[in-house]
Every structure is written in C-alpha cells, then in structure tokens.
Amino acid sequence: MRRALFSLVFASLFAVAADPANNSAEFRKEFLDKFQRTGLSTTPGDAMMLRILIEARGAKRGIEVGAASGYGAINMGIGFERTGGRLTSVEIDPRRAEVTRQNLAKVGLEETCSVVTGDALKVLPALEGEFDFIFIDAAKPDYLKYLKAVEAKLRKGSVVVADNVIVSARAMADYLEYVQNSPDYETVIIRSSMEKNDGMAVSYKLK
Ligand SMILES: C[S@@+](CC[C@H](N)C(=O)[O-])C[C@H]1O[C@@H](n2cnc3c(N)ncnc32)[C@H](O)[C@@H]1O
Question: What is the pTM for the complete model shown?
Fold first, then answer.
C-alpha cells in the first residue's frame, strides 16, 4: 500500500516535471512574441482581432483556410479554447501543415486545433457538421469558391472573415461583390493592423 502510494506521488511529480506549462498564458504570449513570422503570416493585430471575434461570438466550430506556419491558428486556438470550441485549419502544403501542427503542439493547443492537409476546395465540401466561424486566407482568386464550398454548413449568425481584401481586392472582386451585396450577409472592411497596409472583410451571416 505504502509502495503504491509512493509510486503514485513519484509518478505525478515526474509528470509535472516532464510537462512544461506550455499552455500557460505567459508561455503562449512569449511564444507568439518570438514567433518567426513570414510574409505569409497574419499580422499580430489581425490575429488578435480574429481571437476577439471568436470570443465575442462565442464561436464553437471554426475553420481556417490556409494555415502557413500557424501564427493565426495559435491566436484563434486560444480563443476557441476559451469558448470550449474547436478549430480546423486546412493547408495545401504538407510541409507547412506539419509545421503548423508542431507549433500548435508547442503551445498545448493540439486538442483544440487540428490541421487537415489538402486543397481546401476538396477538403471543405467533405467537412462534417455545422460551423459558426471561418477565416479565409488562402489563394486570393478562390475566396468565393472557398465560401461556396462550405456555405451550406455555416449556421445563421456565423462570422466570416477574409484577409487581404484591400491589397488583393481585384483578385477577389467576386467575393467582395457577393458578401457586400448579398442580403444574406452584413459586411464591413476593417483595418486592425497597418503592418501590411491591408485589411479584412468581416461578414455576419444573417440566414
Ligand atoms: C497567407 S498564408 C496563411 C496565413 C495564416 N492564415 C496565418 O494566419 O498565419 C496562405 C496559405 O494558404 C495555403 N493555400 C493556398 N491555396 C490553398 C488551398 N487551395 N487549400 C489550402 N491551403 C491553401 C498556402 O500554402 C499558404 O500556406
């Protein structure tokens, strides 16, 4: 009995020692502050706006289209962890998908966030269930195709965010025309960061 108790205490001590607090707010903040962002990564201001939108909406099931190395996914994942929700990121490049998975694991978000490797135009129609948040950030001319590929699964009250809508406005003219003029959406273009002189379209799905 005493030996069993000793083993239990020893095992739990070892578990704590072997598991750094990679899910603490302090660790995650430092990890994001030091994150090796590339030109593909979402800016810190935009990433924080995504997190705030997720938390304000109380979103429970989210999709990210285009993950790169996971800077946006980590920021959104923190929001989904707080709402008790989950995020699925879709990334066409297998190497980037793996880097994103590793980065999510480094901050203890592997249970909240999953990464699907593949072309979003094929992956999105195959996703099961309903969603209430989507961040579109992959090939700019395909934004409307991504939205259409998943639109039937977006619940009323979903938040739809599209990145780079100022710099790449021409490439995604059909997307912007659709979300700005469809009676199914209310849309605003916001600038939450001046880093890339760009902006995001935030749409609210009314039906
Ligand atoms: C701008 S980066 C994404 C940045 C990321 N959202 C972030 O917050 O840091 C665009 C990514 O979309 C990926 N991509 C491009 N076309 C895609 C497709 N059809 N399906 C999935 N991912 C795609 C690219 O490989 C690239 O990693």
Answer: 0.91
